[in-house]
Amino acid sequence: MKNSTKNTQKMVLTAMFTAIIIAMAFVPYLGYIPLGFMNATIIHVPVIIGAIILGPKQGAFLGGIFGLTSLINNTINPNLTSFVFSPFYTMGGNHGSFASLIICLVPRILIGVVAYYVYRGVSRFMKNKRSSTLALAAAGIAGAMTNTLLVMNGIYFLFGESYATAKGMAFDTLYGVILGVIGTQGVPEAIVAGVLVTAICKAMLKVMKN
């Protein structure tokens, strides 16, 4: 009976997180913040929270949902570099391809997996009163940075020259720009994720424990 109740609870929570991700993806300015050359996002936050509470498999599933919303958004609401996220979009002479699916899906699927194992690892390593807070913050930061680092480096290695052309820059300067995006966009996203994941997860875990 307990296993049945747990499975039902997992299904309900997975559906809830899925609905949140979809809402954040398609309600304007809620999950994606357009910057002209790219969209900043906080959709990784429910993916990370879902992974911590439900486990790595559900985290991977929720990350996949995030990736699919990114694919759809970059297909129907494209910007200059949407071809790196959608194989169905072409910008001038730059075309999306199977590599677009890799960039769009793989980093997002790994968000939940990495976040879960970072949370578990830090929790086991630091057995004190602050371990839960530190583990949640570390998971939030690690999950967000997994997304940023894999996406931006995937763009460089799989679409470097096309991406540089779309942005009107020399390929030689591209990685410097990518590092700039990681620093100015990825790091703040990670800090925000760490704060939100810690606050929301603490409340949810307390309620579920009771």
Task: Give an account of the 3D structure.
With 210 residues, the chain is mainly alpha-helical. The chain has helices at 2-26, 44-54, 56-76, 98-125, 131-166, 174-209, and strands spanning 32-34, 39-41, 90-91, 94-95. The chain has a two-stranded antiparallel ribbon with strand order 1-2. The chain is globular and about 55 Å long. 39% of the residues are buried. The mean pLDDT is 91.
List the helices and strands and how they pair.
Elements: H1 2-26, E1 32-34, E2 39-41, H2 44-54, H3 56-76, E3 90-91, E4 94-95, H4 98-125, H5 131-166, H6 174-209
Antiparallel strand pairs: 1-2, 3-4
Brief overview:
This protein has 210 residues and is mostly helical.
Notable features of this structure?
4 strands, 6 helices, 210 residues, globular, mainly alpha, two-stranded antiparallel ribbon
